Automatic annotation (TrEMBL):
GO terms for molecular function: actin filament binding; hydrolase activity, hydrolyzing O-glycosyl compounds. It comes from Pisum sativum. PANTHER family: FASCIN (PTHR10551), GLYCOSIDE HYDROLASE FAMILY 5 PROTEIN (PTHR10551:SF37). Keywords: Glycosidase, Hydrolase. This is Glycoside hydrolase family 5 domain-containing protein. Coiled coil: none annotated. Gene3D superfamilies: Glycosidases. InterPro entries: Fascin, GH, Glyco_hydro_5. GO terms for cellular component: actin cytoskeleton; cytoplasm. The keyword Hydrolase applies. Belongs to the glycosyl hydrolase 5 (cellulase A) family. One of its GO terms (biological process) is cell migration.
Amino acid sequence: MNEPQGVNLDSLKKYYKEAYDAVRKYSPNAYVIMSNPLDADSKVLLSFVNGFNKVVLDVHYYNLYSDRFDNMNVQQNIDIIRNERASDLSGVSSTNALSFVGKNEILVEKLGV
């Protein structure tokens, strides 16, 4: 499920567990990607994925939709990535799961990239 938002966390975990089991039924070596809820901390699934093998946590960062970033220039946005997002991502990466930044909507609007 890509970018879950406004979902019950227990329901999301149940969905991911069933999806994980379905993938494992056919492929013990495939990576299973689970996306953190957009409206929750990026570490919310860490304890949940500890029991799984070959899991990737997909995190998305949307500075674009937060008023905090409205008056920042490109360099200030980049500094947020270096100083805040990097430590957040290292926390996600400290488990048995890999982490993947699926989207980082910080420079799309600022640079048009």
